[in-house]
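for the writeup, i need someone to sanity check this before i put it in the appendix. the sequnce is what the collaborator sent (i think, or maybe the updated version? ugh). structure was predicted straight from it, no edits. if anything looks off just tell me and ill rerun, i have time this weekend
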Amino acid sequence: QVRLVESGGGLVQAGDSLRLSCQASGRTSSTNAMAWFRQAPGKEREWVAAISYVGGNTRYTDSVKGRFGISRNDARNMLYLQMTNVRPEDAGVYYCAARESVLLSTVLAEYDYWGQGTQVTVSS
């Protein structure tokens, strides 16, 4: 089994930066492609960024392009989301997700493992 634990969330002001982390443990050989999703109150969980196995490919949802960066450190079984110029609409619970395929995906249902989430609150 795989366990994903997010950290780094908190209260920030609009325009600030924040780095989210996700620690993978357990059968980490199954954490190939990984991603970040987020869910705002009353809304569906949405994909934010994804990274392929080894990190050669990355993709971002349009609203975060140029502001967020996804990266991974496989030696440490870590996934990161560097958030800059944060906006109020970026607020929500951020989830780390992993799938056994090496190919990145933007589709929620294609991810096999999920963390419990970390809350990001943005004040304007």
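The chain has a mean pLDDT of 95. The longest strand covers residues 18-26.
thx in advance!!
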